[in-house]
Amino acid sequence: MNLHVSLLLLVTIAAQCSVYGAAERRYTYNIPSGQPLEKTPGYLGSLIPMKQVPEITITQAPVTWKLSDPGGLQLEFTAPSYLTGTSKLPYAFGPTLRLRAGGIMKIKLVNEMIMEGNITEEAPHAFMGPLDTNLHTHGLWDANGVYDQNQTSYAGQDNIFINVPARKKPSDAPASLDFSSNILKEHLPGIHWYHPHKHGSTTIQTSTSHGSIIIEDDPFWLPARRGLCGPMQALISTAPEVLLDISLLFFKLASNPAKVWDSPTYQLVSNYSSPQNPLCCESKNGWVFGGSMTKGNGTDILLVSGAYKPVITMADGVWYRWRMLYSGAKGWSTFRFLDTAMANSKQCEWLLIAKDGVYLMNIPRKVEAVLMSSGNRLEAMVRCSLPSRSSSNEFILSATATNDPFNPGNNQTFATDFFRVAQDEVARIKVVRRPGSKGQHINKAAKYAAEQATKDTQAAPAAAAAGADAEVDVAAVDPAHFYSKPPKWDSRFYRNPVPDSCTPLRPSYAVDMRDAALTAAGYPPSRVNNTDVNFAGYNNADGLGTTCTVNGQLFSFPDPSPLVLPMGEIVQWTTNNGRSHPFHVHTQPFQLTGFNLSNQLIGTELTNFFKVGDFTDTMLIPQISIGAGSVQMRFQPGPFSGYAVMHCHYLNHEDLGCMKVIQWKCPGYDAVQPASGICTNFKYPVPGAVPSY
Question: How far apart are CA 381 and CA 236, in angstroms?
Answer without folding.
Answer: 7
